Write the structure tokens for this entry.
Amino acid sequence: MAAEEVNKPPTLPPYPQMILSAIEALNETNGSNKTSISKYIESKYGQLPPGHTTLLAHHLNRMKETGELVFWKNNYMKRDPNAPPRRGRGRPPKPKNPLAQAKVLAPARPRGRPPKDPNAPPKPVKPKVATGSGKPRGRPRKMAKPSGGISGSTTTTVTAKATGRGRGRPPKVKPPLTEVSVEL
């Protein structure tokens, strides 16, 4: 049992503590990047777990999200409590005016068309004014086929059958069948 305790590597401090000590020791003005933090931890603590790079990345991201570290231009640095928050790219937000917030706004109008007033008098109906030549608008209606045959009516309309052509592609012409006589 004593032999197991002698061969056991020394326990490592938690990753957030190692990361903060690495950033303090490196003391770079613009912060330290992930590779320099990793190299410092490897040189100081020696034997690291096999998933060191993934563990380091996980803890750096978690510390960034909680606000312990600030990530700026691919470098990590300790958060300065007196420094204003750094902005990213793009247009800066508008300053909030305290006078505009104190002003009480009227309730917003509901969406859609307002309902009709049931007490309002009905509007007078305007007579339609005829414009143009008096012809109806749009495509004219189809003429009805004459019923009753040839002598049915005096006005005949020209149809596709009368001209000999139907609508669309004509049917394929089949060659006439010739009878082959076989004599025995």
